[in-house]
Amino acid sequence: xxxxxxxxxxxxxxxxxxxxxxxxxxxxxxxxxxxxxxxxxxxxxxxxxxxxxxxxxxxxxxxxxxxxxxxxxxxxxxxxxxxxxxxxxxxxxxxxxxxxxxxxxxxxxxxxxxxxxxxxxxxxxxxxxxxxxxxxxxxxxxxxxxxxxxxxxxxxxxxxxxxxxxxxxxxxxxxxxxxxxxxxxxxxxxxxxxxxxxxxxxxxxxxxxxxxxxxxxxxxxxxxxxxxxxxxxxxxxxxxxxxxxxxxxxxxxxxxxxxxxxxxxxxxxxxxxxxxxxxxxxx
Length: 283
Fold this sequence. Notes:
Elements: H1 2-7, E1 8-12, E2 17-23, E3 26-28, E4 32-39, E5 44-48, E6 53-57, E7 60-74, E8 77-84, E9 88-91, E10 95-98, E11 103-105, E12 109-113, H2 136-163, H3 169-175, H4 179-192, E13 198-199, H5 200-219, H6 228-238, H7 243-256, E14 264-265, H8 267-280
Parallel strand pairs: 3-12
Antiparallel strand pairs: 1-2, 2-4, 4-8, 5-10, 6-7, 7-8, 9-12, 10-11, 13-14
Helix pairs in contact: 2-4, 4-5
């Protein structure tokens, strides 16, 4: 009985009736759910329905709370297709006036659960030490790419040593400790780009990690302790980025990192994203 009530809430008057429900009534972060409100002729007046677009979290305005993909009103039926980007139980900001003139607000609740597995501690901690996914051939290629990245890092450190006389190797490594991390993220991104389409969640998490380490290198300051919002605030203050374009990329990165596992991005889109941030952080 409880499960039925959580799925569909019914309001019935003596002459007219309306129902509202979610299908399904429990989803993961980023997964779409369909809200439906059905009513008899004249029962619902002046409905205030969320329009298409992304709605910010009232408690964290720089983060998206939910997005409306479809919003239709057809006769005695209102239908919205929605995805939430935060964990919790939510009710749409939808209200209307009934035939008696009373103000009614939506009460149908949607439960949103985390899509992260136990192994997914945080967007920055996504690289297992020495494990690779995919067939043996791709694992071998990833292993070789990792060795090459380490060799390039060592050669770069040696180059710095040779061009800075009397500077000990330890000082060089301490002055630029992010090279190996950056190359490792680039190696993982290259491995992901062998596929088309690419897992959107895996790619944007790798890209987010690469951005964090690249910013640390450019500013010669650690950023691992910064939240996503603090990191992008540091980026806006330190690099000459186009405001609207940068904000759009920030929202995309935050949203895609928590998208369902089946969400994908094309190789071309991945290349555009990586090129944008490489150019932006070189300025």
